[in-house]
């Protein structure tokens, strides 16, 4: 069993990347910190050992938030050249937000990585998320009241949203950060230190400071990661049950392409979690406002359940969808476009003729 200070061997690196042997090209997200630097070193070691390994392209996103970022990107380029890997630096340009900076930077980073992957012909983007990152994500989502799906946290392979089908791969998700640092130390490879990782203004940094205390109580990164895996296993089982419920209760689609109709009596008999996910799926697909917030979905279902018990009609809107209970059916459909009454009233007020003013000319 590897200890926290055990460097990653060549054989272990082969295991970490083995399912990517036949991918033509891989894009590596490398910031220059210890995790991503180790990712690049390990991936290069693995690819060199293959007769026909994937082409590796390292990309550094310079968020232009610190004066050191430019030199750090240059160091990554230097190391990539030594390893025989192509490298590109991309900059996040434009005005930076005064609030929500970490999330905005994350969105910009993945957008730039996706653009680079498409240009390079790479279908997979590799990031250096570690066991420690997974544990921190679980704790962050606990503080935000996430449900089972959220607490399952990050997966090794997922589809990058809004990327046209690019895969996001996290080969190091079960590896402790300390082992990556030990790997770099063994090879005498330097890495950058980003002080924002310890900045108490940011949620992740504050919670990171609590992790040693949680570990003393037995809730270390390994335990939190194990919790995420178990919740993912349960989440997949529940999703399969939702698939069955949908096929059994669907009573036909409405006229619109995003309209769902379910048997109300059968819906009422479903276990609460399965019913909640079924109605959530329908709202998410019929609506136009993206993922449905769990708390709002729970509130809608509570009122819907009360209406079913009372035998009364029900009609509510959520996330751009309308949910209706009538004549033994629950119908979920796209909400009609909102009328901008306030804007129209303002236009009328501006164009209304006032005493002493010329009548506006007609436009064609």
Write the layout of secondary structure elements.
Blueprint: H1 10-17, E1 25-29, H2 34-48, E2 55-62, H3 69-83, E3 86-91, H4 101-120, E4 124-126, H5 131-143, H6 148-151, E5 157-159, E6 167-169, H7 177-186, H8 203-216, H9 221-249, E7 260-263, H10 264-269, H11 272-286, H12 294-310, E8 314-318, E9 321-326, E10 329-334, H13 341-351
Parallel strand pairs: 1-2, 1-4, 2-3, 4-6
Antiparallel strand pairs: 5-6, 7-10, 8-9, 9-10
Characterize the structure shown.
With 364 residues, the protein is of the alpha/beta class. The protein has 2 domains: 10-228, Rossmann fold, CATH 3.40.50; 250-334. It contains 13 helices and 10 strands. α9 (221-249) crosses α11 (272-286). The protein is elongated. The model is unreliable at 345-364 (pLDDT under 50).
Physical arrangement of strands within the biggest beta sheet: 3-2-1-4-6-5
Instruction: Write down the overall geometry.
Output: elongated
> Sheet with the most strands?
6 strands, mixed
Rg estimate, integer Å: 26 Å
What do we call the CATH homologous superfamily of the largest domain? Answer: HUPs
Beta-strand level of the residues, as a percent range? 5-15%
CATH architecture of the largest domain: 3-Layer(aba) Sandwich
Topology pattern, helix = H, strand = E: HEHEHEHEHHEEHHHEHHHEEEH
Q: What's the total helix number? A: 13
Distance between the termini: 79 Å
The share of residues in helices is 40-55%
> Total domains, how many?
2
CATH topology term of the largest domain: Rossmann fold
Structural class: alpha/beta
Which CATH class of the largest domain applies here? Alpha Beta
In total, how many beta strands?
10
């Amino acid at each position: 069993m590897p200890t926290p200070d055990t460097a990653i061997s060549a054989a272990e690196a082969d295991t970490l990347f083995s399912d990517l042997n036949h991918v033509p090209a891989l894009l590596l997200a490398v910031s220059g910190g210890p995790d991503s630097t180790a990712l690049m070193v390990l991936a290069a070691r693995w690819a060199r050992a293959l007769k026909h390994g994937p082409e590796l392209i390292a990309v550094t996103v310079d968020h232009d938030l610190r004066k050191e970022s430019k030199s750090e990107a240059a160091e990554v380029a230097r190391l990539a050249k030594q390893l025989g890997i192509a490298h590109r630096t991309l900059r996040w340009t434009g005005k930076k937000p005064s609030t929500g900076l970490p999330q905005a930077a994350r969105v910009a980073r993945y957008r730039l990585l996706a653009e680079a992957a498409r240009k390079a012909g790479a279908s997979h983007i590799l990031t250096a998320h570690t066991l420690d990152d997974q544990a921190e994500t679980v704790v962050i989502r606990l503080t935000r009241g996430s449900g089972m799906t959220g607490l399952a946290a990050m997966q090794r392979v997922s589809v990058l949203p809004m990327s046209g089908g690019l895969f996001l791969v996290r080969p190091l998700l079960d590896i402790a950060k300390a082992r990556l640092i030990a790997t770099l130390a063994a090879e005498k490879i330097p890495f950058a230190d980003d002080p924002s990782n310890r900045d108490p203004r940011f949620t992740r940094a504050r919670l990171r400071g609590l992790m040693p205390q949680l570990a003393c109580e037995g809730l270390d990164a390994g335990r939190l990661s194990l919790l995420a895996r178990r919740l993912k296993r349960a989440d997949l089982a529940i999703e399969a049950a939702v698939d069955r419920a949908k096929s059994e209760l669907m009573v036909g689609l409405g006229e619109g392409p995003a309209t769902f109709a379910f048997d109300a009596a059968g819906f009422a008999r479903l276990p609460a979690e399965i019913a909640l996910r079924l109605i959530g799926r329908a709202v998410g697909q019929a609506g136009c406002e993206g993922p449905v917030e769990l708390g709002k979905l729970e509130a809608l279902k509570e009122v819907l359940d009360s209406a079913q018990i009372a035998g009364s009609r029900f009609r509510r809107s959520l996330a751009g969808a309308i949910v209706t209970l009538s004549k033994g059916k629950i119908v979920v459909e796209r909400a009609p476009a909102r009328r901008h009454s306030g804007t129209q009233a303002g236009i009328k007020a501006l164009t209304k003729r006032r005493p002493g003013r010329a009548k506006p000319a007609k436009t064609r």
